[in-house]
Amino acid sequence: MADKHSVSATESSCVPNPCFYGGVCEDNGDGGYTCTCPAGREGEKCEISAACSGNPCNHGNCTEDPNGYYCACEPGWTGTRCETALFCASQPCQHGGVCIDGANGFYCFCEQGWTGKQCETGAACSGNPCHHGNCTEDPNGYYCACEPGWTGTRCETALFCASQPCQHGGVCIDGANGFYCFCEQGWTGKQCETDIDECKDNPCGLNQQCINHPGNFTCNCTDGYDGTPCNDVDECAANPCQVNEDCINTVGSYTCTCKTGFRPNGDNCEDIDECSFLGRCPDHSNCINTIGSYRCDCHTGFSGPTCTEITTTPPPSTASSTTTTVSGSTVTVTPGTTTLNTFTGSVTTTTAAATTTTTTSGTTATTTTGTTETTTTTQPTPDIGWINGQSVRQNSNGWKVDATMDEKISNASAHQGQQCWYYKSGRNTGSQPGPGDKTPFSPGLSVKVGRSDGTYTAEADSFYVSFWFKMAKDYSTKFGDGTKMLVVAGDPNGTFASSNHLEIYFPSRYRAKVSIQTKESYPSYTECAQSKNCGDNFGGIPNVIADNLDPTTWHHVEMTLRSRPQDYMDEWFYVIDGDTANQKQEGAFYKTQQYDEGRYLYVNRLSFVDITSDAYVSAKKGIYFDDISYKAYNSSNTNVVLKEYSTSFEPVEN
Description:
Layout: E1 3-7, E2 24-27, E3 33-37, E4 41-42, E5 48-49, E6 60-65, E7 68-73, E8 77-78, E9 84-85, E10 98-101, E11 106-109, E12 114-115, E13 121-122, E14 133-138, E15 141-146, E16 150-151, E17 157-158, E18 171-174, E19 179-182, E20 187-188, E21 194-195, E22 208-213, E23 216-221, E24 225-226, E25 231-232, E26 245-250, E27 253-258, E28 262-265, E29 268-271, E30 285-290, E31 293-298, E32 302-303, E33 309-310, E34 323-326, E35 329-335, E36 341-342, E37 347-351, E38 355-360, E39 363-368, E40 375-378, E41 406-410, E42 420-425, E43 462-471, E44 484-490, E45 502-505, E46 514-520, H1 525-531, E47 541-549, E48 555-562, E49 571-576, E50 584-587, E51 605-610, E52 623-634, E53 637-647
């Protein structure tokens, strides 16, 4: 059936015939026309071939022809229906290469000397000679355009320094497998990132403090030093201490200490009432406190340096006085006077009748006219007759010490007088190292101190000790020597240290000071006594009772034993350099019968024991001791001294 298409027209629209390809035109009478197309044609004017229906040209335009249709392909496509891509249309092959289209792409047949997908690579770039770059052919062969961070003819060398990895001014040097930083002085590390602490090698001089800074250091004088070089400042020259204080210049500083007879009270020093401390004065005397000191006044009827000379007073009379000399002191007998005697070197007695006082060696006899009574008492005499350079055992006065101990009388120093005792080193060896019968023991008193209740047999319950000490080490280098010694109570046999533990220690270090410590009942004196269980660590608790003591001066130690008729209750009191305000109370240290050792050790002498560590034996210099005294008495009557011993290690007086 012919396809009819109508169009409008104004005249006989069929003249001339508007229908193509033999289409028949019919005038519609309304100015339009209709084309009746032959078979195979369509469209308003029969201009469209039925063969182009459905757009058979994939990438082109369909045009009817007598044989059906043909496709006018878009650029880059070919084929009857424009279905085949022409990849070579863009001429991708370089340097004269021949392009061959393929089903899915193209192929280049390169001219001689070229290679690559598009013949873009010269033969010299074959095999990719540029490790980290792009190869480009040139008349001389090729050259490599390297990627960032690489260099070399073939881009084979890394430029590790390109990122400037070296810090703080360090210089970077590239290597085969990395970089190296040459650091500025004061820095270290792979990238010079670490500051060198120059102070760890102590680059500064004596009395200087090293202060590390980033990349360098400075040396400043330590506190208490000034100048170049840094010298010790004598701070005491400016009188920084208060009234009743002594200024002691120390290395790099100073200390203010209360004068003898005074004690700290807040920021001030107050007078010490020495009379409040047990055992200050002998029997038959009253203790009178004075500002910064004290004195002992003999009771009426007693005289002499220790108030032991007895004066008998008859009924009043008008006899004249008699004056005589007693051991270098003047004795004045004056009718009708009453005078208490003090320790001033003179002795004054009171009589009402003619009295004559005479003295023979160590004995004072006083006879009053009209009586027949004569009283004689022995005056204790300090142990004298010591010879410089000899061992204390050579005096045959009761000191007990083995010849292996390094000790002697010395005139190198003295607390007062001319000589002292120098104990350098020496200890027991063999089965009982340390304390033992070979170490020095002072003379034993004829009474023993301890408990007297039950089966205990002590004659006194109290033991008072006083001694002075000074370190023997030359302190000019400001170093201690490691000396460590015990000064403790000794048993009557002179075999064992007994009852307490007082340790003098001078550490082996720069600017060392002397400390004094005891060792306490475990876990404490009070708990041990209350629980009656001192534990496995009995005696293992150190307690510092004085520290920062000047090693160049003499120091005073007082210690008092008070034995009590109760298990675990023996106690010691310690006073250092007269500081009665800070008196230390401790328990007994060494094991007694109540401490599961099966024995009780009484006390009547002193034991001196070198306990210095073996590491410091060659360097230690030991200790000077002087003015040693001790006495036994009962706490119920402190004025009655049962026995006492004293020595200042002085030679025989001329």
